[in-house]
Design brief:
Elements lengths: L9 H21 L6 H5 L5 E4 L2 E3 L2 E11 L2 E10 L5 E3 L2 E7 L4 E6 L4 E2 L4 E8 L6 E7 L2 E3 L2
């Protein structure tokens, strides 16, 4: 008994190549592609830092603005530079953007800031602060007798 020899013919090669192209095309169409959903969920990174400032013997340092979820935060550290107890009023912070548009925020850090101690200021707002270029801090402090 004789066996048939199954030779690889050019027609079989073309058929195999066409089948591979159809399979690759089907995979490309029917397999879902990874989208940029990760990037949509990542928060917008906004982290602004400002120079330290001294107002009525109180040093305001580590002044930062950042965004978390849909709200902006302004944080600062208030340090009494004197050895006296200071009676303080609310802190008024005026923020200006490059077009000189002002945003005024108020914070309360307590009535008295004892000698050489510090308190943290944290202000949360839904106002857009990402274009802030300048910060002006006003506070009234009187020596406690």
């Amino acid at each position: 008994m004789e066996r048939d020899i199954n030779a690889i013919t050019p027609g079989k090669i073309i058929l195999i190549v066409l089948l591979l192209i159809v399979i690759i095309f089907a995979i490309y169409i029917f397999i879902p592609k990874e989208t940029n959903k990760k990037n949509e969920k990542e928060p917008e990174l906004i982290h602004l830092k400002f120079d330290d400032t001294i107002q009525n013997n109180i040093l305001f340092s580590d002044i930062k603005i950042f965004k978390q979820e849909n709200e902006f935060y302004l944080t600062a550290k208030a340090t009494n530079l004197s050895s006296n107890e200071l009676k303080i009023s609310p802190v008024t912070i005026t923020l200006k953007d490059k077009e000189n548009k002002k945003t005024v925020l108020t914070s309360y850090i307590g009535d008295i800031l004892t000698g050489e101690n510090e308190k943290n200021i944290i202000i949360k707002t839904n106002k857009d602060l990402k274009n802030t270029k300048n910060i002006d801090i006003k506070i009234t402090a009187q020596v406690q007798t």
